Amino acid sequence: MKAAFIRQIGTPQEIVIGDLPDPVPGPREVLVAVRACAINPIDTYVRAGMVAMPLPFPFVVGCDLAGEVVAVGSDVDRLKPGMRVWGSNQGLLGRQGTCAELAAVDERWLYPTPDGVSDRDAAAAALVSITAHLGLVEHAGLRRGETIFVNGGSGGVGTAVVQIAKALGGRVIASAGTPQKREMVKRLGADLVVDYHDSAAMIAAVREAAPEGVAVYWETIREPAFDQAVEMLGDGGRMVIMAGRDARPPFPVGPFYVKQCRLLGFVMFKASSHTQAAAAIDINRWLAAGALRVPIDRVLPLNATAEAHAIQEAATIHRSGSLSGKLVIECQR
């Protein structure tokens, strides 16, 4: 099979496009003909060695996938050849990744793709939608009628948070950096979208829209703006962080505890397969109904995986502003 893989950690230029042996599924594994996969920030961290994980070299990069089941292991009982599936959690914790024509995946991490949902859309939604669901449902416990502020609503996770928060009955305020991105976030269902470049004006706009403060503040940025967040949060508010592995920003302890706020940090791939499968049930319902569509910035062929990693890295680490949605790789045999 053709695959995008590395023989050692390093820059995007370490990614090689070449032939590897077709994977053979184990008893609980499913062999998937990968039609599409998506690039995520965690993919670039693993490739660069920024996150310490066991890497079986040659190591296929990529977490997300969507495609068709072509074979199943002897103990697989839920999935059958010919079924369309999507999933995430590959390329992590010693598992091989998804940027390849074929992937052997434990059936725990695969979910049926709803009719009418393309492989591109399923792959784009995978990791970011599970992340958004875990943060909103498992951790923040967003309730119907509550107001949430999403700092960075036009990114991959941000767009999923905006849509899922609306599907859960929340009132959504989000920030984005350009008029085009603000219009996109508005189309995704946000009730109010503000420019994040002027923090004081943004705080004032949010406080005007939510005089008692927001119930949930979701931070997508690597360097959390804690003073800004605490200013926006209402009494008993919850702040969710899911990025910024090396961040060490100042923290306003006094205002935070006086407001009786909570700080919630989580890592998607540490959630159990049962928890993620429960999230996938909701995600599939919203995908099928058209209530969830993670924007795709561009679709690239498998041989452009290194280019995709470079673009993602520039957007995530250097905040280049070059992305308005997910990068999707098509892997067709």
Question: How do you describe this structure in short?
Answer:
The protein is α/β, with parallel strands linked by helices and 333 residues long. The chain is built from nine helices and 16 strands. Helices cover 31% and strands 26% of the residues.
Account of the 3D structure:
The protein has 333 residues and is of the alpha/beta class. Helix content is 31%, strand content 26%. The longest helix has 21 residues, at 119-139. It is globular, with a radius of gyration of 20 Å.
Supply the number of helical segments.
9
* Low-confidence blocks of residues: none
Reported CATH architecture of the largest domain:
Alpha-Beta Complex
Overall mean pLDDT score? 96
The name of the CATH topology of the largest domain is: Quinone Oxidoreductase, Chain A, domain 1
- Please outline the major beta sheet: 7 strands, mixed
**What is the share of helical residues?**
25-40%
Strand proportion: 25-35%
